[in-house]
TrEMBL record:
This is ABC transporter ATP-binding protein/permease. The chain crosses the membrane at residues 30-52, 72-93, 148-169, 175-194. Residues 352-597 form the ABC transporter domain. Keywords: ATP-binding, Membrane, Nucleotide-binding, Transmembrane, Transmembrane helix. It comes from Intrasporangium calvum.
């Protein structure tokens, strides 16, 4: 699971500063403008009192004494006060605007980085990371990381106020200033304790946010099953349980903050109190005037604001660290595929071969354990095969025998644990990024259509003219129904192609592969929702239209198998026999049984259809 690494409580501050440094390095200009804005605000807060005093002395008092105000005096009062307000406004707007831009830029940048990394990571990594968690990484975790940039410019900018206050206090009376400043170590200790208490709670809350997103994602995805099997109450309960847990975790976070906040807020006041107590004593002994004590007490209250602003940053630090921990777990995830720089030849149909290829899935034994506690489940074992250029071969085998895994290996969606996959004699690991998909196309078992038009779903943004589109749709037996759709090629198909039937969706997905004119076309049970006569028509057209294509088809129907030049029969991840359909029928009992079962199923389906038609 992403980001389950526990944040070491003591190092939260160090890790938080590292996150801040990274953010500043990424957005130096906007951050500098925001800090400048906050500095202007801090300086102006100090100057306002001085400006008012000066105006009173220079304009108000003389006017009162004279019994009337000259227009020059009025202009002076209005001008100085307006200037002060204006500069202050510029400071506040500059800080908020530039700080916001820096924060949202960081969010956008890291969302892109995380999603880019998802695309880079191989299928094997995705198999172990549920979509809900990934959504949370790209959204809630990125947001949690960079939210600290909301109070940060202010906290840095008003450090000027802090420095100003401290220097002034030291000038007036160093002894009293030191008494007051003893609160700072106290504040630091309180903040360290706060972070120690917050880190584990924040980690838990952030993980639960991801869990809520995962359950929600699953429930929405499974809406059809939930509704059709009457599991709404069960799903509601499942969602309630995890959201209750999140609520409790958030309350616990709030409670912890509630325990620390008053103490952290009260410590500067304690400092003022100490200054007053010791100051009173020093006034009594005659070493300080009452005015000087009052001045130090006032200066101390000026320093309280920057201290509070620093407190806001420190309060956000644990969440930021936890968010970054989870985001960086994705960014640093190993397993991104290395690519070579070779191109696959573009010279008609490809040959495909595997040499002693094996692949095992990692299955997490205990989801609570850190990554690595997984057992291996072999899916493809020591497979050696070769498919000549332009041939059509069928891969046949019982369910779970490794057929889809084999197609994934041929497309380099995963790398074999041992052995090599060769296309036109080139190890797929040596091919440059994107090189395999330029030459080969896979139509997977599960069809996915985008919420786009038929045209958009077939071309996926590549430039193809309408004639090419119709040709591909024709081969995929989709042209007739697309013509009948309201807006033809420009008809929107809805989310995941919801407005189309299962068979129609499969045909659009097939056209998507065909239009790319692949040299290697892999169909993984890609026509299961199409009725058998149409499927045969599709495969016939495909064979005629694709003389320059090698076709590997995972087949479940006798008719499909009969179209193949050769059949590979797979059992338990191994190719146990290969040959023509007729040859395998005579010598491979497993194959014969499977084919008999397919034929029986087809006959039963045909009989049911005939009975239904007779009854009409
Ligand atoms: N993501 C995964 N994680 C763990 N095991 C997996 C995963 N995908 C497949 N497997 C396992 O690997 C084996 C081969 O699966 P695969 O999907 O390749 O079989 P298949 O022959 O295509 O099956 P079917 O005919 O049902 O589609 C199965 O035992 C399956 O349980």
């Amino acid at each position: 699971m992403t980001g389950d690494r526990p944040a070491a409580a003591g190092s939260t501050l160090r890790q938080g500063l590292a996150v801040i440094r990274r953010g500043i390095a990424a957005q130096p200009r906007w951050f500098a403008v925001a800090v400048l804005g906050a500095t202007v605000y801090g300086v102006m807060t100090g100057l306002t009192a001085w400006a008012i005093g000066w105006v009173v002395q220079e304009a108000v008092t003389p006017a009162i004494e004279a019994g009337h105000a000259t227009s020059g005096q009025l202009w002076l009062v209005g001008g100085v006060l307006s200037a002060v307000v204006l500069v202050n406004v510029v400071g506040v707007v500059g800080r908020r605007l530039a700080g916001g831009i820096a924060m949202y830029n960081l969010g956008a940048h890291y969302r892109r980085e995380v999603t880019r990394q998802y695309l880079r990571l191989p299928l094997s990594w995705h198999h172990r990371h549920p979509s809900g968690q990934l959504l949370s990484n790209a959204n809630a975790d990125v947001e949690a990381t960079w939210n600290i940039f909301a109070p940060l410019p202010m906290a840095i900018g008003v450090l000027v106020m802090l420095a100003f206050g401290i220097v002034q206090m030291l000038v007036v009376d160093p002894f009293l200033a030191v008494v007051g400043l003893t609160v700072f170590p106290l504040l630091f200790a309180a903040n360290v304790a706060f972070q120690r208490a917050m880190s584990p709670r924040m980690t838990q809350a952030q993980q639960l946010r991801a869990d809520v997103s995962q359950v929600a994602h699953e429930s929405f995805e499974a809406a059809l099953i939930v509704k059709s099997l009457g599991r709404e109450d069960h799903e509601t309960e499942r969602f309630r349980a995890v959201t209750d847990e999140l609520r409790d975790a958030n309350i616990e976070v709030g409670r912890t903050r509630g325990r620390f906040d008053p103490a952290i807020e009260a410590i500067p006041t304690l400092g003022t109190l100490a200054v007053l107590l010791v100051g009173t004593h020093r006034v009594g002994s005659g070493s300080l005037s009452a005015a000087e004590v009052a001045q130090i007490a006032y200066l101390f209250s000026i320093t309280a604001f920057p201290v509070r602003a620093l407190g806001w940053v420190l309060a956000k630090l644990p969440r930021s660290v936890v968010g970054w921990d989870r985001v960086s777990a994705v960014l640093e995830a190993r397993g991104a595929m290395d690519h070579g720089d070779r191109d696959l030849p573009r010279s008609g149909a490809s040959t495909v071969a595997t040499e002693s290829v094996s692949y095992a899935y990692e299955i997490e034994t205990d989801p609570g354990e850190p990554e690595g506690s997984a057992t291996l489940h072999p899916a493809v074992v020591d497979v050696t095969l070769e498919v000549p250029a332009g041939a059509t071969v069928a891969v046949v085998g019982p369910t779970g025998s490794g057929k889809s895994t084999l197609t994934n290996l041929l497309m380099r969606l995963v790398d074999p644990d041992t052995g090599v996959v060769l296309v036109d004699g080139i190890d797929l690991r040596e091919v440059r990024r994107g090189g395999v998909s330029e030459v080969a196309a896979l139509v997977p078992q599960q069809t996915f259509l985008f919420d786009d038009t038929v045209r958009g779903n077939v071309t996926l943004g590549s430039a193809h003219d309408d004639a090419a589109l119709w040709r591909a749709l024709e081969v995929a037996h989709a042209a007739d129904f697309v013509r009948r759709l309201g807006a033809g090629l420009d008809t929107r198909v809805g989310e995941r192609g919801a407005s189309l039937s299962g068979g129609q969706r499969q045909r659009v997905a097939l056209a998507r592969a065909i239009i790319r004119d692949p040299q290697l076309l892999i169909l993984d049970d890609a026509t299961s929702a199409v009725d058998p006569s149409v499927e045969q028509g599709i495969l016939d057209r495909l064979r005629r239209a694709s003389a320059g294509t090698t076709v590997v088809v995972v087949a479940y129907r006798m008719a499909t198998v009969l179209l193949a030049d050769e059949v590979f029969y797979v059992e338990g991840g191994r190719v146990v026999d290969r040959g023509t359909h007729a040859a395998l029928l005579g010598r491979c009992p497993g194959y014969e049984q499977l084919m008999t079962a397919y034929a029986r199923e087809a006959a039963e389906r045909a009989a049911i259809t005939a009975t239904e038609e007779a009854a009409r």
